[in-house]
Specification:
Strand content of chain A: under 5%
Helix content of chain B: 10-25%
Distance between the termini of chain A: 30 Å
Order of helices and strands of chain B: EHEEHEEHHHEHEHEEHEEEEEEEEH
Number of strands of chain B: 17
Strand content of chain B: 25-35%
Number of strands of chain A: 1
Order of helices and strands of chain A: EHHHHHHHHHHHHH
Radius of gyration of chain B: 24 Å
Structural class of chain B: alpha+beta
Helix content of chain A: 55-70%
Shape of chain A: globular
Radius of gyration of chain A: 20 Å
Structural class of chain A: mainly alpha
Distance between the termini of chain B: 72 Å
Largest interface: A-B, 34 and 45 residues
Number of helices of chain B: 9
Oligomer: heterodimer
């Protein structure tokens, strides 16, 4: 084994081989985050049920009962829940990943390992919460007697797409966060607005046809509409262009994020 | 001819300090900078933490890095550990490096001892199988068997340090890089760790160690590098480098504070050497070692203690705050306190000395801080200087002479 340490010139190489050789650490970090997440909380894992449940009740009251927005012939609570599920996966995975490098600054300044492991592993605890909430969704589907078709299998690639968006964005913003602490204030704010700018509590059918494609530039539009289509079908249609746009945006974010991260990480220890 | 494991040539590390350094940058600064076309950008001041450092490290060798605080020792270790990138020069590494720049990095307080062994081991580069294989050995080395399933936040500081060091001590890298971590833990445990490090070197692996404790360096290393303001001042056989370093008086540390102020009911704030003059201590001059500490809650009985050692690491004598009592430990009085130990003149021979401090813990234990203070006794007014007599001490003893009966 021979390694040369010298000032880096030009763009960094991705070095996936090294990342692969540290894959165990990736799972150790994920395991730590999941283990620690609900330690010393009174109700523990119940939090993973309560958060989407309370959000669902609020959304049902405001959008369903007060604003009387259409829910495409699906009982409103299930309709809202099907939107909340991917949204909460995205927002919590993205937020965890963004703050992960700064949150692990002690490690970054004291031990060497491929830094990309930090934001990637940070998204896993959100995925664990998502799986818990998914169990709740099954309960709701049974309770409201909503039939599902084989299309439900599409949820797997759609969840992967949602994670890809969170990982790509998370990698990028975690590196930005090291340099610009403004990110600390920016992200919660954007996420707060995002839940209303994304069809979580309503259907994108209420957006005028000609604006629909522009609206789909929000990559979560494709994901959430996809979730509803896979679960309910019927009036819940999906625009293939919106979905394609989500995939393209996810890949671009991942590429840009990774390049930015790899080129910034060499100064992490100096500026963190 | 043993294989070379590290070959460093002309390593340098530059930091930018001042208003435009990355450190304080916010998005707003960046935006205004772009808007103004960077015309008003003032040149940030450059600071070379390390410059033109070259050395080789061969298998089986233990290399010491010495120097004052801020001399660039940690920066050098960080470059070799790949934590930060050099600004100039290059280093070739031939083998797996494990670095231990701080004990217990990545320990999570909420996790149990067992969980932390796995997590910390993985962070330091061990595979899960490797950790599983060595798990019992690690736990036995740390002497925490009973508490292995307790969250580490409930550990005493001694247990915490022992467990953290035990994980690191069981790495099997080609090169082990250690920064001042031996400054913690009790004396028996420190000896165990030193033994472990010597063991690493004897297996055709190499160790690079930073320490302020010349006794440790002299005992452990064959070669040393002395850094000052980022440059190598002297390198070569350890005795030669340590002697040069001490002779230059660079080690004259007369005040020391524990690196981490523990939030405990008994806390040591500072230990200092107090004397009349500002230069070396004359042979006939008395001086004091002063301990500032505070007791804010219930604490088990204990004591303050110090050991004076010569520059080769040999202990000259030890003294404890309970020496005048029949018991080894006494009850603490609460409040902010100052304890003094007076060391008389005409005791030590001219030379350089180190003071090892024992810091009491709330559970009645001691944390040993090895060689954290140093002082020099000059030949002025020393009995030893009068006729060049030998000996570690130069006491003025009572003589009498009377007519024999």
């Amino acid at each position: 084994m021979h390694k040369v340490l010298r000032p880096r010139q030009g763009l960094a190489r991705l070095n996936l081989g090294e990342l692969w050789s540290y894959r165990e650490l990736l799972f150790f970090f994920a395991w730590r985050d999941i283990l620690v997440r609900y330690k010393q909380t009174v109700i523990g894992i119940l939090w993973a049920f309560i958060r989407p449940l309370v959000a669902m009740v609020v959304f049902t009251l405001i959008f369903g009962r007060l604003a009387k927005l259409p829910s495409n012939a699906v009982p409103y609570p299930v309709f809202a829940f099907a939107g909340l599920l991917p949204w909460q996966l995205f927002s919590s995975a993205f937020m965890e990943a963004s703050s992960s490098v700064v949150g692990n600054s002690q490690l970054v300044s004291k031990v060497y390992f491929p830094r990309l492991i930090i934001p990637i592993s940070a998204t896993f605890s959100a995925l664990a919460d998502f799986l818990v909430s998914a169990v709740m969704l099954i309960g709701l589907l049974l309770w409201y007697r909503v039939p599902v078709s084989a299309n439900v299998l599409w949820l797997i690639p759609l969840t992967a797409l949602c994670m890809l968006l969170a990982v790509g964005g998370g990698i990028w913003f975690s590196a930005l966060f090291v340099r610009y602490r403004d990110i600390r204030h920016l992200i919660p704010f954007v996420m707060q607005l995002g839940i209303y700018l994304t069809p979580v509590g309503f259907s994108s059918a209420i957006i005028p046809e000609r604006w629909r494609l522009l609206y789909s530039l929000n990559p979560m539009v494709g994901v959430i509409e996809g979730f509803r289509w896979a679960l309910f079908g019927g009036q819940n249609t999906i625009d293939p262009r919106a979905l394609a746009l989500s995939v393209v945006i996810a890949l671009v974010m991942l590429a840009v994020g990774t390049v930015y991260f790899r080129n910034t990480e060499r100064v992490f220890a100096d500026i963190i | 001819m043993p294989a070379t494991l590290v070959s460093a040539r002309g390593l340098g590390k530059r930091y930018l300090i001042g208003p435009d350094a990355f450190r304080m940058q916010t998005l707003r600064d960046r935006i205004t900078e772009v808007l103004r076309g960077r015309v008003r950008r003032s040149d940030p001041r450059e600071f070379w933490a390390l410059r033109d450092v070259s050395f080789d490290l061969a298998a089986g060798e233990v290399l010491g890095v010495i120097g004052r605080n801020g001399a660039g020792k940690s920066t050098l270790l960080k470059i070799i550990s790949e934590i930060t990138e050099p600004t100039e020069g290059e280093a070739h590494l031939f083998g797996r490096v494990a670095s231990l720049l701080e004990v217990g990095v990545g320990f999570h307080p909420e996790l149990s001892g067992r969980e932390n062994v796995f997590l910390n081991g993985a962070i330091l580069g061990m595979s899960r199988q490797e950790i599983r294989r060595k798990f019992d050995e690690i736990v036995a080395f740390a002497e925490v068997e009973q508490f292995i399933d307790t969250p580490v936040k409930r550990y005493s500081s001694g247990m915490y340090v022992r467990l953290a060091f035990a994980v690191a001590a069981h790495l099997e890298p080609d090169m082990l890089i250690v920064d001042e971590v031996l400054a913690v833990g009790d004396a028996a445990f420190q000896r165990k760790c030193l033994g472990k490090m010597e063991n690493v070197a004897s297996h055709q692996r190499a160790v690079m160690v930073v320490s302020h404790n010349m006794a440790t360096i002299a005992q452990l290393c064959q070669r040393a590098i002395w850094l000052d303001r980022g440059r190598i001042v002297h390198s070569g056989p350890v005795r030669e480098v340590v002697a040069a370093y001490l002779a230059q008086g660079a080690a004259g540390a007369d005040t020391w504070s524990p690196p981490s102020q523990r939030d405990a009911p008994i806390a040591l704030h500072a230990v200092s050497i107090v004397r009349e003059g500002s230069s070396d201590i004359a042979g006939d001059e008395a001086f004091e070692v002063v301990f500032d500490y505070s007791v804010t809650g219930p604490v088990a009985p204990g004591r303050l203690a110090l050991v004076i050692s010569a520059s080769d690491g040999a202990a000259i004598f030890a003294s404890a705050s309970t020496d005048h009592l029949p018991a080894l430990r006494e009850t603490w009085r609460s409040g902010r306190r100052r304890a003094r130990c007076r060391i008389p003149g005409h005791l030590l021979a001219p030379g350089n000395y180190f003071v090892t401090i024992s810091e009491p813990t709330e559970d009645g234990g001691d944390i040993i801080h090895d060689g954290v203070l140093s002082f020099t006794i000059s030949e002025q007014n020393s009995l030893a200087a009068r006729d060049g007599r030998r000996g570690a001490v130069a006491p003025l003893l009572a003589w009498s002479d009377e007519e024999a009966p």
